[in-house]
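Technical appendix A lists one of the benchmark inputs used to test multi-chain prediction within the project. The record comprises two sequence entries:
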Amino acid sequence: MPMIRYLLVRLLGALPTLLAIVTISFFLIRFAPGGPFDQARALPADVVANLNAAYGLDRPLWDQYTTYLRDLAHGDFGPSFRYKDFSVTELIREGFPVSATLGAIAIAIALVAGVGVGVVAALHRGRWIDHATIGLSVVAIAVPSFVLLPALGLLFGIELHWLPVAGWDPTSVRDYVLPVTTLCLPPLAYIARLTRASMIEVMRSAYVRTAFAKGLPLRTIVLKHALRPALIPVASYLAPAVAMTMTGSLVVETIAGLPGIGRYLVQGALNRDYTLVLGMVIVYSTLLIAMGLVVDVLIAALDPRIRLEA
Amino acid sequence: MNAAVPPSPLLEARALRVEYHAARGLVARERVIAVDDVGFSLEPGETLGLVGESGSGKSTLARAILRLVPVAAGEVLWRGEDLLRWDRRRLRERRRGMQIVFQDPFASLDPRMAVVETLEEPLRIFESGLGRRERRARVLRMLERVGLGADAMHRYPHEFSGGQCQRIGIARAMMSAPELLVCDEPVSALDVSIQGQIVNLLADLQRESRIALLFISHNLTVVRHLSHRVLVMYRGRLVETATREALFAAPRHPYTRALLAAVPRVPRPGAASADPSRAAMPLAPDGPAGPVVGGCAYRARCPFAAAICAARTPELEPAGPDHAVACHRREAQTP
C-alpha cells in the first residue's frame, strides 16, 4: 500500500516536470530563426501565408501554445510540418516500436553482459583478464557508431555473408544482430567498468571479510553480499541509458536503414518541424522520468536501508 | 586410539611468518614483516590472551591462523593437520569450527541484511538440511544467549548500538558452533561501560560451550579477566608467554613490565603510594619505525639494552614453569 501511494505521488509529481519541459521546448524552438516552410528557393508570399493559416501559425504564439497543450491533453501531438499527410502521433506510433525493441534488447544485453564482465574483472583484479577488460572497454566506448556499424557490416555482411548489412524485417532475427551489437557495446563497456569499480570496493569491505571468515562459498559472497551494493551505481546509470537507447540512434538507424524514430529529433530540429521536435522531446522525457522512478524503486530493493519517500 | 598419545592441541602455530608488501609512493613496494617466527598452542576450551601495542602484528597473526591473509612461512596445525595445506573447499568446510569476531562491530555486518538473515546464513551453508522453522528457532535461541530479544530479528545493523552490533557479531560467529573463537579486539571500539558487558558475555559463552578463545586486546585488564594464558607480542615477535598468574605477578620481559606499569589504576586509600617496580619502568619512546633487522626489536626502548641485544635476536627460552621470555638481559633486570 505505501508502495502504491509512493508511485502515485511520484507520477503526479512528474506532470509539472513534463509541462515545464514542453513549455520551454515549445518557446525555444519557436525563437529559433527560420520556419518549417523555408526552402532553398523561397515560396511566393501568398503561398507561405496560406500554409501558415492552414497550420495556425498566423495566430498569436500564446494562442498556439494553449491550443497545442489542449490537443496534447487529448493525446494529439499535431500534424508534422514536413512529413505531409502524417501526424506526429502516427510517425511516433510507427517508428517507436522499432527503436524501442532494438534499444531494449541492446540495454538488456549490455546490463547482463556488462555486470558479468565487471564482476569477473573485479574478482581477478590486476591479472590479465582484468587488464583485457579495461582495455577493451576503452575501445568499445571510444569507437563511434558510424565507424563500428559499417565495419561490422563490411566484415559480417559483405565479406562473410553471414548477416544483412541493412534493411528491416521485424520477424527476422538476423536483421537485429548488427544494429543491436552497435547499440549495446558502449553501455556494456560502461556498465562493466562501473560494476568492476564498485565491486572491488565492496569486496574490500569489512563485512565481505566477515563473509569469507564465516566460510561462505565465493558464489554466495558475490551474489548475496557483494553484488547488490555494487549494482547501485549501475542502476543510477540505467535511467539515462535506457531513455537514450530506446529513443533510437540517428546514426545506426540511418546506416542500417531502420524505420525507427532515431532521426526525427535531429531532422525535426533542423527542419523546424515544430510538432515533431516537441513530440520527440515528450517521448524522451517521459521515458527518462519513468525510468528514473523505476531506478529509484530498484535501488530501494537493492538496499533495504533506503526508504522510498515522496 | 592409543591412550598413551598425549591429546594434540586444538590449534598450534609453528614458526609462523606473515609479510606485507606496503606501497611506497606510486610504484615502489616495500616488504614489511608483520609476524615473525611466532609459535604457540591452544588447547580445547582454553582462553589465550594476546597483547601488544598497535601495529605489533596481533590482528595479522589472528587472521593468518584463520587463513584470512596469506602466510609466508610456517605451519598452523588444526588438530594436528596443517591448515595452510588445505584446498579451498576443505578450508571453507572447516571454517565452521573456527570463527572470528572482528574489531569494528558495525562494519563487519552486511548493512543490507536483517539480523535474522545474517545469523541464518551459516546454518544455510553448514546445515542445509534444517527447515525454516528450526533455523528461526536456533537464531532466536542464539539471540537470547547473547542478550538480545526476538524483536532484533528483523532489524538492520544500523538500527543497533555498537554494543548490540557486537552481540550480533558474536552471535553470528557462534551460530556454526565453533571450537575456536578468535576475538580480534572485540571491545576496543566500544564504550568502556559496554566493554565489561561484552567481556562477561564472552566469558559466559566460553564457560557454557567449552570453546577455545584467542582473545586479542591491548587492554591488559580485560585480558587478565578472561585468559588462562597470555602471549605478549612486540613488533611481530612473541617476547613473553606465561600463565595469567605468572605474567601478572612476575613479568620477565622489560616490555611486558612497561605495559603493566602503563595500566592506569585507581589508588586505594591508605595504600603505599605505588609499586616501586612499576614506577621504575617507564615506557620509553619508540625507536625508528620499520622492520628491525637483526637483534632485539625492543632494544631502542629498553633500559637494560646491551651489546648482545643488537647482535643477536633473542629466542623464547623457559623462565619458569609454563613461562618463556625472549630477552638476553632477563637476569640483569631481576628486581
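The first strand of chain B starts at residue 11 and ends at 24. Chain B touches chain A at residues 66, 68, 91-96, 99-100, 102, 104, 107-114, 121-122, 125-126, 156, 158, 169, 172, 176 (CB under 8 Å). Comparable benchmark entries are summarised in Table A2.
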